[in-house]
Specification:
Layout lengths: L4 E6 L29 H9 L8 E6 L3 H7 L8 E4 L5 H15 L4 E6 L7 H17 L3 E6 L10 E4 L8 E7 L4 H10 L2 E11 H11 L1 H8 L10 H8 L8 H6 L5 E5 L10 H7 L8 E3 L2 E5 L5 E4 L4 E5 L4 E6 L2 E6 L6 H9 L2
Parallel strand pairs: 1-2, 1-4, 2-3, 5-9, 10-12, 11-13, 12-14
Antiparallel strand pairs: 4-8, 5-8, 6-7, 6-8, 7-9, 14-15
Length: 353
């Protein structure tokens, strides 16, 4: 394995659209969402470790999830778990981790990957990632893996690449915000748009240079701690300074401003498992398209539902179509799939009870 390969595994999100399974105290990346036998973070770590030395995989998460990380990834040393003392979006934590890696290995190339996505063809993922690493070792490039769109999704940002570029790795023209349905449709018809899956690849040299160019204030803040990184003084510096960083995503902070941005259209299947409906797509279904996780169910005149239960009980369903049914500790959710984007709002109402 190449000792210059590193990974930053993003594991700080709450996944509120998967309530009541995913909660602030126990978010979705720490759950076995598909009943596969492994949690999403375990799957992602295993996938990355096929190409990247285990000791070079850093976990970025909120300090409240440290025990969950240690429990689910016992092969990871505490020094590999970077704990955010405050929620500050993706740019500050990526800069912090990049400076730590650069201090340890200035020749490093790295991938930044969410911990809660679902990728089945892991061999193809490794092949795509290797292509990106090879490119970033030679070029001053900020790269992303773009996902081939399968329908006009309005929930993702899009990457527009140069249509005339015949190379496997394309120059990015621009990032586009989440579109309305007609705009998304026009993107698919154009043929040079990809979903932004939030997987980034670059050398530490390229990303730290980009931060110093586009985010000088944030860069100065974290550069002040350079002597403490990878020492016993690091935690104190981060606790004292992290909350002073701007709350901004890596897309807005760097990727949308830089000119040296490239994309590789991914050749592996991908699902960001952002909603119950997307989870339903990945499940095995019965003859009426019902997806069932960990539940004993009797179904009559029911179709296209997703059912999950952590309770040791039989669930009888009759006459329900296109519903999310989740039984979790003191909460029973019976909700139309067509309204799943409202689950965040319903969670807030339920928490007031």
């Amino acid at each position: 394995m190449n000792k210059n390969y590193y990974a930053i595994l993003m594991a700080g999100g709450v996944g509120s659209r998967f309530w009541p399974v995913s909660t602030t105290a126990f978010p979705k990346q720490f759950h076995d969402m598909l009943g596969s036998g492994d949690t999403l973070i375990q799957k992602t770590f295993s996938r990355l470790s096929k190409l990247i030395p285990v000791e070079n995989i850093l976990i970025l998460t909120n300090e409240r999830y440290n025990d969950l990380v240690q429990e689910q990834l016992p092969m990871v040393k505490q020094k590999q778990v970077l704990l955010e003392p405050a929620m500050r979006n993706t740019a500050p934590c990526i800069l912090y981790a990049s400076l730590k890696i650069q201090k340890e290995n200035p020749n490093a190339v790295m991938v930044v990957a969410p911990s809660d996505h679902w990728i089945e063809d892991e061999a193809e993922f490794s092949r795509n990632l290797q292509q990106c690493f090879d490119f970033c070792q030679k070029e001053n490039a900020l790269m992303t893996l773009g996902i081939q769109p399968t329908f006009p999704n309005t929930g993702f940002g899009y990457i527009e690449f140069d249509k005339s570029d015949t190379n496997p790795i394309k120059k990015v023209n621009q990032f586009r915000e989440k579109p309305d349905y007609q705009t998304a449709k026009s993107f698919l018809e154009a043929g040079n748009f990809l979903w932004n899956g939030g997987i980034f690849i670059w050398s530490v040299q390229s990303i730290t240079t980009a931060f110093s160019t586009f985010q000088p204030r944030m860069n100065a803040l974290f550069q002040n701690g350079i002597e403490s990184y990878n020492t016993l003084n690091e935690k104190q510096f981060i606790n004292d300074n992290y909350a002073n960083a701007e709350n901004i995503s890596i897309d807005y902070a760097v990727m949308e401003k830089a000119k040296n941005v490239y994309v590789l259209p991914a050749t592996f299947d991908w699902n960001d498992l952002g909603t119950w409906g997307q989870l339903h797509e990945k499940l095995e279904k019965d003859e009426n398209n019902n997806g069932i996780i960990n539940a004993k169910v009797v179904m009559e005149n029911a179709s296209n539902n997703i059912v999950r239960s952590d309770a040791n009980k039989i669930i009888v369903i009759d006459g329900l179509h296109d519903y999310i049914i989740v039984d979790k500790e003191g909460i029973l959710l019976i909700y139309p799939k067509s309204k799943e984007q409202d689950i965040k709002r319903i969670t807030a109402l339920a928490n007031e009870l």
